[in-house]
Amino acid sequence: MCGIIGYTGRRPAGPIVIDGLKRLEYRGYDSAGIALLDGDHELYVARSVGKLDRLDAHVEGTLPPAVAGIGHTRWATHGEPSDANAHPHLDPSGRVAIIHNGIVENFETLRARFTDRGATFLSATDSEVIAHIVAEQLEASGDLVEALRLTTLQLEGAHAIVAVATDEPGRLVAARVGNAGGVVVGFGDGESFIASDLAALLPNTRRVAFLDPGEIADVRADGVAFIDGEGRAIEKAVKTQPYDPVAAVKGRYKHFMLKEIYEQPETALDAVRGRYLPDLARVSLGDEFPFDAERVRRIRRVILIAMGTSMHAAMVGRHYIERLARIPAEIDNAAEFRYRQPVIDDETLVVSVAQSGETVDTLWAMEEARAAGCPQLTVCNTPGAQSTRVADGTLLMRAGPEIAVASTKTMLGSMIALHALALHLGRVRGTLDEAVEAEQVAAALRAPAAIGQALLLEPRIAQLASRYAQREDFLFLGRGLSLPVALEGALKLKEVSYIHAEGYPAGEMKHGPIALIDENVPTVALALDDGLRDKMRSNIEQLKARRGPVIAIVSAGDHSLDGVADDVIELPPIDPLLSPLVSVLPMQLLAYHIAVERGADVDQPRNLAKTVTVE
Ligand code: M6R
């Protein structure tokens, strides 16, 4: 979850580290801190609880002309957000400073070893002990790389760590242990970088290498050496990444979340481009799909795994795979999948969905699938992320950088990628009618325009938001393809406005949740004309009979709920199978506007982090 940045090179390190932290703040904003090394072996450390602007103000005018530095934004796991618990952490002599992402599961035992000898700890974190161990190992071995390598062998759990020592001011050493989020090394001209995310490096360099679990990078201004967990030198491929400087700035929008909602017509265009072929009336996944026809025919079922919004996209994908490819498909919460000893084998296709490609729950579930010999695909928004390295093939979401913590456009990109995958599987297995494929291809190519039209609903939704902003509970109901959208509506509202919201299959409502309903609890009911609308209408009548306000989301031209629901939002026309691509927009806009009405911090909601790298 935490953001990590490091720099060594010819330019003053301080401003580069601070600038990198600004790009990483979405990973955690409980506190931030930096450690800078100058050529005279002096260590400058600054830490501040709260968001990065507090640290920025704290260090203003005081940054030394450092040759190297490290910085950290924290998402608290052990120890409350405070100055003392902010990283970097130092060993008692001040010789070593470390930043850490992950959880040291055996930190109490490790700490006791030092406290028994009289050492004191200044924080309540699990991370501080790492600095003590690195210093101990450095004393013994005299080499920072070896010291960090030996340290990692003592730590239980998964970690990304960067260590610096005053003995060698221009050197950063980074280790990745297990699936605790990425570590990416950047190669510049007379300078080198280290970070938890690519986004923090791209303004400075596009030439990068990703650490795999168990690897260590010895980073100096004039070059980087890599070793494996046994201390053997290894070669890493350096890749050049694309960079779009415009995508990472807010532009005319007040918040990244709104900007990213508005980027969805473009996301849809990018997601269909080259995959949906109008001339041939079919999809083509090209290199994204690594399995031959014989392998595809051997698949007996598909399991989709993901967390949060990506899991809601996966739920939509499950419908696509069952309806279009006729393969039994299941959806599982990745954190549950890992621990329930799933019955899977090499005839089970596992499809993970992860915007970041670094979500630890999803990565561990993928490891489980790998151990069972399952063929794997991942739908991911981050080229080069760990999930793309575990899976046999990657379908990119093609959404560009998503900065707001609440996901929007990546869900859209995922749903389109999964629709294309289902069509591909259906054709290869001979279970998809050619005419249906042609119809779906044409419908997908019209989707970007429909998504653009759905954005025109914003003023109407902003009015609803101001009417309902002060309610404390919300219900979201849907059936079939609208159920994942209802769940997503509830998740978005919780995340950004802190209103208690529940998403339910509409049929389940009368089995319990209806007890919540009175005139103060509004329901958003997705009642699209998809064969289930009349069932939804009955559910809406049941809500109205209990005086619950209802906002109904309906298909284009459907007036059957006028006068039944309190408000009726009509979507633009779209093929029923693709309806989640447009029906999710009112969910996103409602959550956004309610959060703005309530004065919430839309882009950085409390307690959350964009990339979840701890269990
Ligand atoms: O990077 P991932 O797609 O794996 O992330 C999964 C969830 O953590 C993520 O979707 C989370 O629920 C978002 N904050 C939702 O807006």
Structural overview:
The protein has 615 residues and is α/β, with parallel strands linked by helices. The chain folds into three domains: 3-252, 4-Layer Sandwich (Glutamine Phosphoribosylpyrophosphate, subunit 1, domain 1), CATH 3.60.20.10; 261-432, Glucose-6-phosphate isomerase like protein, domain 1 (Rossmann fold); 455-597, Rossmann fold (3-Layer(aba) Sandwich). 35% of the residues lie in helices and 22% in strands. The strands form five sheets. It has an eight-stranded antiparallel beta sheet, covered by helices on one side. A seven-stranded antiparallel beta sheet has the order 5-6-7-8-12-13-14. Strands 19-18-20-21-22 form a five-stranded parallel beta sheet, with helices on both faces. The longest helix is centred in the last third of the chain and has 21 residues, at 409-429. The radius of gyration is 25 Å and the shape is globular.
Care to give the gist of this entry?
It is built from 18 helices and 27 strands. The strands form five sheets. An eight-stranded antiparallel sheet has the order 3-2-4-1-10-9-11-15, with helices on one face. Strands 5-6-7-8-12-13-14 form a seven-stranded antiparallel sheet.
